[in-house]
Input
Amino acid sequence: GFISRVVCVFNMGKRSRQRKKEHQKNSKPGGRDSRDNAVGLGCHHTGYADIVKENKLFETYYKELGLVPDGEFDQFMESMREPLPATIRITGYKSHAKEILHCLKNKYFKEIQEVEIDGQKIEAPQPLSWYPDELAWHTNMSRKILRKSPLLEKFHQFLVSETESILDMCAAPGSKTAQLIEMLHADMDIPFPEGFVIANDVDNKRCYLLVHQAKRLNSPCIMVVNHDASCIPRLQIDSPDGGKDTLFYDRILCDVPCSGDGTMRKNIDVWKKWTTSNSLHLHGLQIRIAVRGVEQLAVGGRMVYSTCSLNPIEDEAVIATLLEKSEGALELADTSAELPGLKWLPGVSKWKLMTKEGQWYNDWSEVPANRHTQIRPTMFPPTDAEKLAGMKLERCMRILPHHQNTGGFFVAVLVKKAPMPWNRRHPKEQLSSSVAQPEASPVETPLPGLPLEDGEGGEMGVKEEAAEISPKEAEAGDLIKEAKVCGPPPNKKMKLHGFKEDPFVFLTADDPVFPPIESFYDLCPDFPKINVLTRTHEGKKRHLYIVSKELRNVMLNNSERMKVINTGVKVLSRNSDGEEFGCAFRLAQEGIYTLFPYIRSRIISISVEDIKVLLTQENPYLSKLEDAAHQQAKQIGMGSIVLRYQPDNSSSDGPQCPIELCGWRGKTSIRAFVPRNERFHYLRMLGVEVFRDKQGQGPGTRDGEEKVDGEEKVEVKVDGEEKVEVKVEVKMEVEEVVNDGEEGVETENGIKDGSIKDELKEVKIEATST
Output
């Protein structure tokens, strides 16, 4: 389900895993080569040399710009050299998130107060004052202390567990996308919010990391696509009157590629790689992406432009360019009252430019001709003082690291008041009947002074004679040709790069797969069958996914315009044993919170004690359940079931949010079909302590040995009683993997993590006293 969990963001840099593996392979401590070197040289290899956190060019540039308040520059630089604190954010449905928060505050946070490690006093986690509902916390514990200290082992184990149209233009790796999804699912009782998120990234491989992150939230309202953000296609949707409308987004997140000098606290490589040239090279791309974003923004909508750079060339210069070219269509929103606890500095209206050789330029007129290809006029502040004042650049937000122990960021919120001037259409001259023609659909043309990306503006295929433009537009962009619009280039077949995805095939309402499912689970008549899709045209349908009606509308109208990497949440999986019980499909935990509102039978109401039994024992007998659940189970035939916990409003005991688990009713036993991480999540939510052995270092193994039996031993402690050892065995069903026809998702470590992986894992829980 769409499960709340704790995400711990350790803001420390890390090298490539592959590089690290090679380094460890080539220098094994204690090995023969290592000992030989130690004997011969009187020492042993100590790893990579520490990066010196010094960059004179960086200090000179920012000191001269004066972005940091007077008297604070030394504090600013000192903060940049310090590692970031550990940050904890609680994600998921708000009802589940509140239970996790209650558990953290009343148990784990209290246990680490006044702890000292290596002479360093550990600060108890504190909530971020500006983040809503205390769902984000930070602590001064370093990554090393949090991971390695035995005193914090219990807390660390806890951390390991896991209605608007929105476009995230540069979404990977997906942390901000996840927050957007959470906002859509703020109300747990609504399975299909009207809004949706389209998450895009230009890098095909990073898209799969984005899928991996987004799938943890189990939302039917997320679609991951793979396009260059500077020319992401404009999409069409069905309109209520039976025609076609252009899709304009209510909200757009435009977190553009940047030089990242605000991330020096976690990406220490930036210290030695930073030069002013980085910003010069990225400025044009940032403008193109931002322009494409505001073109697709609905009138009245908001676009957040953000970077993790402090450089005005990547920040205010881009915003000023957008405002100037928009001719009043855009304005900066005043967000000073929206996050009262967040400390930030207003944007600047004056800045200058420095080359990597140390040469300063105050405005474009000072730039020599031989530098014109590297330095552009849009990198400087507007020269018209009145126009500059009207932009209100002080509404931009610059966040400095020493003010609230964070990284460095820049954020600007743009509101669209009217169509962009290069997209505006004017009615044709009135006909003799004196009836004016309606306003035509917008067509995109390149922003004057910016290069046209391949494919940009060519999605709509509007003919040249569609409409006329005003003389003002012609003067600004030289876009009039014989009193008609220069139309976009002819449509080209979309070039697909990267792995070819399996198709997304929507089922019809009369598909023969539905009657047995509807009968077996007694689905409500309003179950949206037309929103169900599969990933194959031929053969048996192994998995059924579902999306919201809004995403279905988008997908059916734009299959040739966009490359979809992943969408939908799995709700049903084929089970070879199910046919003999009346239905070939069993419920999938991934989509149970989406499907449950439509299920009217095969539901067993369970208690907290029942949940503990189901999640810590393998195939417990029906008699292990409490009487109420036992009697219900006896009345239900064999097959897939829903195990539901409903909180008692008259009592404060137990979780105060509903819990739904997929299960299987056997002949004499019952089991929960819940993936491993979610088992741990629910157990912790019920107050059960879970301790997992570190990989390769469990009982009976020596350091470095791998467990060949595929088991992971876990200890749980229920209500202060003796510990119970839980053995988790991962067993892949080879037949389903081979025949599924679905491609895997490449995760950070290069492992193919198939979309069916969680449901194919047969997680066995075996309880034994220790």
Q: What stands out?
A: Residues 5-13+52-159 form one domain.
